[in-house]
Amino acid sequence: MVMDLLRSRVALEAEVLVLRQQINVLRRTRSRRPPFISIDRLILGGICGLFPKMYDVLAIVRPDTVIRWHRAGFRSYWRWKSKRRYGRPAVPLEIRRLIREMSTANPLWGAPRIHGELLKLGIEIGQTSVAKYMARRRAPPSQGWNTFLRNHADGIAAMDLFVVPTISFRLLYGLLIMGHGRRKILWFGVTAQPTAEWIANQLTEACGWEQIPRYLIRDRDGAYGEIFIRRVRSIGIRDRPTSPRSPWQNAYAERLIGSIRRECVDHIVVFGERHLRHVLLSYMSYYNGTRTHLSLNKDAPMSRVAETAGRISCRPILGGLHHQYARV
Question: Whose CA is closest to 54, among 24, 14, 26?
């Protein structure tokens, strides 16, 4: 009673109000667990939130329960406060997905570029809304390695020499020139004496003077002499020899030579230079126009159209070593 005399009138009234509300709850029901309605939670939670000492007065409910009521009321209040009452209309879900897909597929595009494309598609939307729904990136926009290599592959050619033994145990040299863009074989040359002048002439016949590659990848074989280097420079090709003992730097040509051995010359006895040239040209026709490749999504270097109508016919290639299937 002495402590009550020293307390403020407001604190006493708050305590009285809390006790009175608990009595009202007990009068309302006689069950062991009295139910609390919204007004009970509002009064008890509000007063205890303003006067934390009122938690000691609670007798029919735990303080943790009152704190939980107060937090639930806080969330409900701000949910009501944040309810949209005016402003711009909401952007439809389909347009938001389209903006995200465009920003993901085109990492070099900004909000103005995507906004212009949407306007051309007849979609009226603000540029700030486009920027809001674009995909967020942690790093600056950059193309991946696959895109980078694919963009530069059309201007790169590779060449290499390989050895084929004949029936008389002589060695013939085959010259392979291929393009990186579609893995297409551009030229096959056969000789018994690969000189720099002969290789330069083969390169000129393969590339011509119109559709020349920008870069040429080759190894550091001694056959590529000064005459070959001057010819490459005069054509306008940038010569890029690989590092010593690094065949992996010319991986496409090395892989193709392996395919030529496994699929062609390892199964044929070569009689001479003319015979080898005929075999390699036949294989080049099969490789470029018929053979499918994993790197080209199961397509040939010279793209094949899928045929769905007609009877399937089979034509042997290289004496039946391979076959070509088509509909007639």
Answer: 14
pLDDT band of residue 267 (cuts 50, 70, 90) is very high
Domain CATH code at residue 242: 3.30.420.10
**Rounded Cα distance, 127 and 123, in Å:** 12
Instruction: Evaluate whether residue 12 is within a structural domain.
Output: yes
Look up residue 323 and give its two tokens: 């076959």
State yes or no: pLDDT of 52 exceeds 80: no
Same domain flag for 167 and 123:
no
Structural domain boundaries enclosing 193: 153-288
272-276 contacts at long range (C-beta below 8 A, 24 or more positions apart): 272/166, 272/172, 273/172, 273/190, 273/191, 273/192, 276/164, 276/166, 276/172, 276/174, 276/190
Q: How far apart are CA 165 and CA 195, in angstroms?
A: 19
